[in-house]
Structures are given as C-alpha cells and as structure tokens.
Specification:
The complex is a heterodimer of chains A (313) and B (376). Chain A has 313 residues and is of the alpha/beta class. Chain A folds into two domains: 9-225, P-loop containing nucleotide triphosphate hydrolases (Rossmann fold, 3-Layer(aba) Sandwich); 230-296, 2-Layer Sandwich (Alpha-Beta Plaits), CATH 3.30.70.100. Chain A has eleven helices and 14 strands. In chain A, the strands form three sheets. Chain A has a six-stranded mixed β-sheet with strand order 6-7-8-3-9-10, sandwiched between helices. The two termini of chain A are 31 Å apart. Chain B has 376 residues and is of the alpha/beta class. Chain B folds into two domains: 2-41 and 176-375, no CATH class; 48-155, abc type-2 transporter like fold (3-Layer(aba) Sandwich), CATH 3.40.1710. Chain B contains 14 helices and five strands. Chain B has a five-stranded mixed β-sheet, with helices on both faces. Chain B is elongated. Classes of the chains: A alpha/beta (313), B alpha/beta (376). At the A-B interface, helix 2, strand 6 and helix 3 of A face helix 1 and helix 8 of B. Bound molecules: adenosine-5'-triphosphate and magnesium ion (MG). The site of magnesium ion (MG) has 4 residues of chain A, from helix 1.
Chain lengths: 313, 376
Amino acid sequence: MAGPGEAAIRVQGLSKSFGPVRAVRAIGFDVSPGEIFGLVGPDGAGKTTTMRMLAAVLQPDAGEIVIDGVNVAAEPERAKLHLSYMPQRFGLYEDLTVSENIFFYAELFGVSRNDRMTRSQQLLGAAGLLPFRRRLAGQLSGGMKQKLGLVCALIHTPKVLLLDEPTTGVDPVSRRDFWAILYDLRESGVTIVLSTAYMDEAERCSRLALLHGGAIRYCDTPSRLKVSMPGALLAIPATDPRGVRDALTGKPGVLGILLMGDRVHVRVDDAARRIPELQRLLAERGITEASVEPTEPGIEDVFVALLGQGSGP
Amino acid sequence: MFERLSVMLMKEFLQLRRDRWMMFRLIVPLIIQMVVFGYAATFTVHHVATAVLDLDQSQASRSLISHFVATSRFDIVDMAENRKQITSDIVDDRAVVALVINAGFSRNLENGRSAPLQVIIDGTNSNTALIALGYIGQITAQFSSEQEGRPVALRVGSVSPVTGIKLEPLPWFNEGLNERWFFIPGVIGTLTLLQVVSLTAFAVVREREVGTLEQIMVSPIRPFEFILGKTVPFFLIGFGDIALVSAFGILWFHVPFIGSPLVMLAGAALFLMAAVGMGLLLSTFSRTQQQAFALNFFLLNPFFILSGFAFPIAAMPKALQWFTLINPLRYFLVIIRAVFLKGVGVDVLWPQLLALALLAAVMLTISVLRFTKSLD
Ligand SMILES: Nc1ncnc2c1ncn2[C@@H]1O[C@H](COP(=O)(O)OP(=O)(O)OP(=O)(O)O)[C@@H](O)[C@H]1O
Ligand SMILES: [Mg+2]
C-alpha cells in the first residue's frame, strides 16, 4: 500500500484503554506521503484517541507508531518537529491577536524570522485572515478561529498533519477555504490524517479507515469501499420519506434504509428483482407512481452498510 | 531550550499586560488589606475604657492620672468614688481597665518607698488586656522616672474570666506591643501566598481548560520548559508583591526594618518556590478554573489560620500543630517578622530557611511529577 519509498506513517498493533474502556484495539495502517487519510466512525469510535497517540501527546498501551522514519514512542521530541496536530478543539490564546498566536507557535517550533513572515503571510492569505491580523483571537468567528488554528498548525511546515474533526461547526464557505488549503498542502507533499463526521469530506480523502468500537473495520479508497458495499442501492424521491421508510422496513430483500433529506436510499440484495416489488409495496401504502431507480452509493451509504449504523449529520 | 522558555515567558507577560484588570487585581487588594490590618489592628490598643479610683487625692496621684490621659491609649470613662463602683464598672463592661491609687500613694513616694498602683483588667479579651498592660507599664515607668527614681509598683489584679495575665510574654523587640508592627509583616506573607498560589493555579488550569495545553504539548516544548514558563512569571510577581507591600509597611506605617535584606530575599525566594509549587499542585487537581477557585478557597484558609499569623501555634491542638509543619507560611512568617522586627540573621533563622527549602523541593517535585502525568 505504501508508495515506492517508505510510508510517511506506519501504525502497528496500536492499543489504548482507559480503565475498562478499550478505546483503541490493535489497529494498524500505513499512510503514504502525500495522502489524505481519513478516519471515519461514530462518536466514541476512538478517532481522537488514535490522533492523540499519533501526535505523541498520549502514551499507547501497546503498538508502534513510526512517523517519517522516527519512532514516536522512542523519540517524541524529534517526531514532533515534523508533525502538526490540530485537536478537535484547537486551543488559541483568545487574549492574544491573530499575529501573536502565530508568532507564538512559530517560535515554539523554532521557525526562523524570515520564514515566519513569508509563511504566515501566505497562510493568512489563503485562509482569508489577512485583514484580521491585529484582531484578538477571542473576537474571531468560529470558522475563522478554526482557520487560524490551521495556520498555527502549519506555520512550521510540517511533513505530517493530523487534523481531528477540523471543520466541525464551520460554515460551508470556510470549509471550502479549508479544503483548498489542504489540497495545496497535499500538492506540496504533506501527509494528512484527518478525522471527520462529514461524509462529503470523507469522500475527498484518498483513503478511508472506518473505525468502530476502537477497531478498524474497513480501510480502502472511497471508490473501492463503495464497490465492496454488499447489495445494490436504490433511490426513491419522496415528499414523505418517513412514510416510505415505514412501508419498506423489514420487507424481503431490503437490507437497509437511509433517509437522505428529500430522498430515501434503500439497499437491496438484487436491484432488478426488487424494483417492481418495492413499487408495489409503496402503492399499497398509497404512494403511487414512485420512481425507484438504481443509484451510485455515497460514502454514507457504504458507511452505514458496512458498520450497520448511522453517524454524522 | 532557552528560546522555547523565553517565548513562553514572553507570551505569559504579554497576556498579563493584555489583561487590563490584572494590575488592578494584583495591587489593589494588597493595599486594601494592608490598610485594613494596619489600622484595624491598632484600634484595640487605643482609647481603652478606663475607670479610676483615686483614694489619695494628691498632686502626685493627679499627675499620674494625667499621664494616662495624655496618651490617647486610655479614655477615662469614670472617676469612681469607691471600690464597689470600680468593680461594677468592669463587670458591667463600662471599663476594661481600672486603676486604683490607694491612700498614701504620695506619702510613699515622698518617703522613697515603693508606691503601689493597683491595676484591674478585664481579662476576657486577653489580647487587649495584655497590650493595655504593656502600656500601663510604660506609662508608670515614665512617671517613676520623673519622680527621681522612686518606683511605682504595679499590682495587677483582674476580674471575670482570668485568662492568666502574665507579664513575661511582653516581647522586648516590639516594645509596647505595637500590633501593627506584628501584623504587617504577617500580611505581607499571607497575601503573597494567596496571590501567587491562585495566580499560578489559574494560569495553568486555564491552558488546560481552553485546550492550549494540549496544543503546546504537540510542539517540541518539554513539560519542564512549560512549567518554568508558567511559574517564573508568578514567582517574579510574588517578589514584586513582597517588595511593594514591604515598602508600603515601612514608609506608611513606619514598621521598622532592622534585619538584612539578603536574609529576607533568601526567605522570600524559598517561600515563593513553595508557593508556585503549591499552585501547580493545585492545578493538577482541577480541570476547570471554577474547580481551581473552590480548591484554592478551601485550602488557603487553613493555611492562613494555621500559620501563626494571628493565632499562636503553641496554643493549637497537637494534630493541627503537626499540620503547620508543612505550611510554608508558618516558616516565612517567622522569618519575615524576625527580619523586620528583630534583625536576626541566618544564624538564628536557618531552621526556618531549611524547612522552606525542603518544602519547596518536595512541593515542586510532587507537582511536576503529577503535572507531567496529567498530560496523558
Ligand atoms: N481521557 C479519557 N479518559 C477516559 N476515557 C476516555 C478518554 N478519552 C477517551 N475516552 C473514551 O474512549 C472512547 C473513544 O473516545 P474518542 O474520543 O477517541 O472517540 P472519538 O471517535 O474521537 O469520538 P467523537 O466523534 O465523539 O470525537 C470513548 O468511549 C471515550 O469515552
Ligand atoms: Mg473525537
């Protein structure tokens, strides 16, 4: 899986328990340089715990993490030099200005004065934060804070970037800015690991690990995960999605039903055979003329099909 | 290492400066407490209600009484006619002190014999009684010296709960038992402990609460550098506190500073190390600033009460006396009072200095270990 050279991140047998809670159970994966690797899973799946161990702020119970050839457990300080971690809630000093926050993190990582100036200029520009340089971080909007967090996390030009749900609570425009920055980073060879609850974001990752109960259930590219989804997916546009769901729940051949706003996704064992059946069932419930068409599964469908439960918005 | 430490310190001071109320919060409570203790503490030894029974009715006896009136320490509230009146003055709380000049006072003086002045003191408030007695001693001594060396003997009696009035504990280094002189050095230590411990604890807990702690720990900074960056500013602020409050006490309240500033500096440094250690330790027991505040409140009170600031340690139950052994304030109060008022040096104060050094070492070690562990 790892490219021709060695992997940027290599994780083997990683485990962590908090008392009786086995938050992470013997997970392993490789991430190649320049990949955007996504960790997806429901609340409490162990995403944050995994991230914190990768970032060397949490000591694993067992297992090995090698980042950029450096064993994290053995040399945490050296590993941290090339690493950047943005926690679920990035801690900014709200009583310092945008520039002062950036300055502080730059100094902590020993970024030279010159590099700091050009790089902060460039990052602030990309994040659309240039006009707010002198504003106190506490007075920024939620999305701006998150972008400032990213700028701080990137100021030392890390080779590996760990982002824990970086866009949760961020408006769509800021999210687009955010992803533009991530794509730029990937172009320049930065390896990114991110956890997300947004399925559209999961879709943008080069590879995904589906985490559930502390274990990796599936790990592959989004497109191959879709192929591996058992059954076929049918879309039914509906004015009353709940009515459709109630009509079809538990019927033969129906493997799963997912409400998608104004449509209902129904996963069945055999599309050709079930389409007329479903139409008949709907008609019995007074939902006539319903269009039941095969559709391409989104990552959320795959996710639910594979893990057997819903998550995210 | 030094770059990272210095950037931590820079950030810390920037934040302190940014906080417009910080300077206010740092200095105003100190000044208020100083004034409160400085003035309130002296109130008890001024204007002591005094009843007088002059059975001699001579020039000498009137002169002695006028000596008492001349100071503002005693207010004559009753010129009694007989002993019964005196007793009821005291029993009914009209007077705290009664002076009885027996007949033959002036004759005794003239014949060069000892002329007794009987003093009756309400011992309910032994503190006031003791202080008043100190002044009475001073005034009569003054009077005697004016009578060409003929002594006026004091006969002390007391009514109501007699809590053993003794003359021996009158400390020679604070003649007249100026409470202000006794309290102000104590205030310096107490307030500094309060401020340094709470500021340190809050500053660390805030980083944890806001999430910046986790953020910083991802950088190559070592826990030890972070701890230094977090404690050195408050250590320095503590020094500022001590200097400011000392200057205030010396210049405003004229508390004498007899001892060596170097001894004071050494004591203060050790005391402040213990204090930041305590603050750091406290922070490891709190997840939020609110918890830190509550803990701070509950812990610092006993530290204050069991320090010898106002209540003598020797009078405490044994178990509490043992507790005072781990109280840095206890040692620092001895040091600061001794340096201010007695002017003694390391030769006398080394046990206290040593105890503070040990306490500081133990507190810092435990807190650093606990803090490092709490990072997981
Ligand atoms: N410091 C801790 N102490 C005790 N239990 C913890 C701790 N951190 C995490 N856990 C537990 O470990 C499990 C995994 O938590 P984790 O935070 O890794 O999940 P997550 O996938 O990040 O969830 P979310 O989507 O809600 O952020 C949960 O059951 C959680 O309660
Ligand atoms: Mg999480």
